[in-house]
Amino acid sequence: MKQENILGTEKISNLFIKYSLPAIIAMVINGVQTIIDGIFLGNFVGPNAMASVNLVQPFNQLIIGTSMIISIGCISFIGRTLGEGKKKEAQNIFKTSVIVMSLVSLIITFLGIIFNQNIAVILGANEVLLDSVSIYIKTLAIFSIPMSLMFLFGFVDRVIEKPELYLKGSIISVMTNIILNYILIKKLQLGIRGAAVATGMSFSMALIITIVPLLNKNSVINIFKGKFDKSTIWPVVYNGSSEGVTAIAIATTAFVFNMAFMKIAGEIGIAAFTSISYISQFGTLIMFGISDGIGPIISYNYGYQKHDRVDDVLKISYKVTLLVGMILFAILFLFGRSLVGMFTGSNTDVLEMAVNGSKLYAFAFFFNGFNIVYSGYFTAIGKAKESIIISACRGIIFIIIGILILPMVVNLKGVWLTVPFAELMTFIIGIKLMNKNSFAKTSKTAA
């Protein structure tokens, strides 16, 4: 007999607020960790330090990406399994995910500590930035395991009716990061190493909060019960694989743009792109928060065959996404100079380049929210292939196509227009995939 929880009974609009709002805030808070590093480094160390943090982003995304693959795949699988009333199987999924996550994170730690300089070179660090990039990679790698487990535990908290804990952990995390950045960078002048320690410690503090309900042996999901079940590994990894593609996409975008701007304007160009990527990241994280928040609602009700509730949460998501996109466009288009100035300090060259680029980049917000929700929806219902297609299109395929073609047509403007181009093309593909997989068709294969 199935045991109902609020995901299958409470009013959808209430669930959307209860789950998406904390998810949005938490996602933004966690995502701005490196932005906080950039603000402190840009103002108290210099543009080269800020550029170094941006070059490190692909390695940072390796940690976050692998965490999200397992976390999203795990929560989607657990949500549908609990919706079907299979508590024992859900517990086994969680136990297996914890073990796999720990092993993968341990490997990343080893790679970062031993091969940090090699990784820095691969990521495009020149002689000026090599040492600082290597230091950041080596230091951040030490925190790979607690960072990864924080994401996993925080996401699983949502499906056991504790969505607020991930938010509370994120608040503690950002407060820790700000305090440590101030002490380590401004006061102790530890520069890039201090920034990495602050980021790693902030995620570790959040772990203490998110693990609490999972220590309760009476909880439907906890760290004590269950057993390792290798048969669950592939469904978890496959189902969360679109998140891996998203991480690869973020890393690809950072790499491609870093190479383009390094060629055009050297370290100054990368610093300009970094300031815009920080600002745009804030908006994109809001969209990801919406997607993450509705994920447990969709997966549980999809497993419980309540497709009308899934439709309702999608409709609300579309309306909110459109509104948020319009607001973000207006903010970046109208107030780009003030926002960019937070990261560039008194460097007028970086400021002017970034301000001009922000007005073109802003058009991406009309489409990226829909694309993120589409991808999250397919992951939640177990259709990883469609989610992968959307993630790959918006972050890899059309980014590469755009960066190869658009600059030849409109020069530097083409670089800034690459992301809006990729989001628009993906939006068109996303609509076709959603129509193809409407419930009139998916309900036939939902069991």
UniProtKB/TrEMBL annotation:
Q: Provide the alphabetized UniProt keywords.
A: Antibiotic resistance, Cell membrane, Membrane, Transmembrane, Transmembrane helix, Transport
CDD domains from the UniProt entry: MATE_MepA_like
The membrane-spanning stretches of this chain are 21-42, 62-82, 94-115, 135-153, 165-185, 191-215, 236-258, 278-299, 320-340, 360-381, 388-409, 415-434
Q: Which domain of life is it from?
A: Bacteria
Its localization reads:
Cell membrane
In what way does this protein cross or attach to the membrane?
Answer: Multi-pass membrane protein
Nucleus: present as a keyword of the record? no
Main location group:
membrane
Membership in a protein family: Belongs to the multi antimicrobial extrusion (MATE) (TC 2.A.66.1) family. MepA subfamily.
> Do you know which NCBIfam families this protein is assigned to?
matE
Q: What is the name of this protein?
A: Multidrug export protein MepA
